[in-house]
Amino acid sequence: MWSVAKKFYDYLITFPERLYPFSEKTKEGKVISGERAYAYLKEENIKNFDDAYSLKAPKLLLWRQVFHLGPSLVIIFIADQMFRHMSFFNGFAFLVLVSLCIAIQEFYFHPHYYNQKIEKGIIDFTTWMLPIILYIVL
Question: CA angle, 127 as apex, 6 and 87 as ends, to 5°?
Fold first, then answer.
């Protein structure tokens, strides 16, 4: 059961890699695109900055944040439907539960299982939570 869940989770977190739309020029002058460009840029960032998603070279970091905003908007839509058709408590409880799950994911699972740095976890968590907080406040 857990191996199936882990495979599905790994499939989901590799969406940004598989859907990378940009091309990169290698040191040899060869133009590569898609997944190979993503892998190349990731290797270059690790070599130059010791971090694949460094703020010093934010292209990959920003691309991955797009894939945090999308699901965040889906979560807001689901919560909005719960607020409208169920009760305020159900919608609010859903947002609290999702926020807790995101925090556990970004600050426990990703650092322990994917060697994610805490700075990236903070950026990811902020990207997840900012639309949700704006929805609650507004």
Answer: 85
